[in-house]
Write a structure and sequence with these properties.
single chain, 327 residues, mainly alpha, two-stranded antiparallel sheet, 17 helices, 2 strands, globular, binds zinc ion
């Protein structure tokens, strides 16, 4: 799973070379890049921005002892909201349609998704559908066969491979465009990111308990954002390389408890790639799966419904047929 501020960062540089709906030949002519070059051309602006962001996050760690304890708690709350915007929102709701959500919940998840600043919902879901459909080929935006570094962060440092663009155009995304919440978030994405990812996390500690803006910005915005990105990227890297394959030994995605712990339930990746429609993204119910707890809670409140789940019989039969026998 998981993408990154393509439209804000990468597409700001490579974007003119990857206009949506434009023919690839036109795009190539515009950038002067061949198909072979496209997957290897470095986007230096992203390299610099990521270096700055991670340096800022390291500096933020030094500020932790100086910050108010409420600021630590607030940063963690922002981390959880951020994560839900991706896991319960862009991933399980919009990419996979594994449950249905009413308007108030969709608005909350879209706002949380802007706090995550990993591309707007439409773009994230398009890339994620490509990740599943063309998994570990050149059509996969973070193809793990190109190594840990590429799957984790390196894919943001290179222009998209031509197959990602070409094959991405074949995906049916009409359901996303039919959701006014998705369209609204896409239209106002930059503003929503400034407000949700940076302003709100910074201003709340300053306004409510007198935290200095400097501490507040580096902890609740920069550090929280950097950690949330890396945790999400681990699903693309570590969970495609380390762990068991009890459901399908023929694919690379793995069951990785450590990733699940950080990514609030998204590390059961062999299960998820085998049963992508399952709203829990795991056979194990609520264990290490706060996202599933959240969706269940929303159903209890009447804000969500129609959770899709693989049946025990289906799971057992699949394990026997293609599993590696590890569970
Ligand atoms: Zn998925
Ligand atoms: Zn995956």
């Amino acid at each position: 799973m998981v993408s990154f501020p393509d439209s804000e960062v990468r597409d700001a540089v490579g974007g003119r070379c990857e206009p949506e709906g434009a023919e690839s030949r036109e795009a190539e002519a515009e950038c002067g890049a061949t198909k072979e070059q496209r997957g290897r051309t470095i986007v230096w602006r992203n390299v610099v921005l990521m270096a700055l962001l991670h340096t800022g996050a390291l500096y933020a760690v030094l500020l932790v002892p100086k910050a108010h304890p409420f600021t630590w708690i607030w940063s963690y709350v922002c981390f959880i909201i951020t994560a839900l915007g991706v896991t319960a929102g862009a991933h399980r709701l919009w990419s996979h349609r594994s449950y249905k959500a009413k308007l108030p919940l969709r608005i909350f998840l879209a706002a949380a998704n802007s706090m995550a600043f990993q591309n707007d919902i439409f773009e994230w879901s398009r890339d994620h559908r490509a990740h599943h459909k063309y998994s570990e080929t050149d059509g996969d935006p973070h193809n793990a066969k190109r190594g840990f570094f590429f799957a984790h962060i390196g894919w943001l440092f290179l222009r998209k491979h031509n197959d990602v663009i070409e094959k991405g155009k074949r995906l049916d995304l009409s359901d996303l465009l039919a959701d006014p919440v998705v369209v609204f978030q896409r239209r106002h994405y930059k503003t929503s990111v400034v407000v949700m990812c940076f302003l709100l996390p910074t201003l709340v500690p300053w306004y409510f308990w007198g935290e200095c803006i400097w501490n507040s910005y580096f902890l609740a915005a920069i550090l929280r954002y950097t950690i949330s990105l890396n945790v999400a990227w681990l699903v693309n890297s570590a969970a495609h390389m380390y762990g068991n394959r009890p459901y399908d030994r023929n694919i690379n995605p793995r069951e990785n408890c450590f990733v699940s712990f950080g990514a609030i339930g998204e590390g059961y990746h062999n299960y998820h790639h085998t049963f992508p429609f399952d709203y829990a993204a795991s056979e194990l119910g609520l264990r290490f799966n706060p996202t599933t707890c959240f969706i269940d809670l929303m159903c209890w409140f009447g804000l969500a419904s129609d959770r899709k789940k693989a049946t025990p019989e289906m799971i057992k039969a699949r394990k026997l047929r293609t599993g590696d026998g590890s569970a």
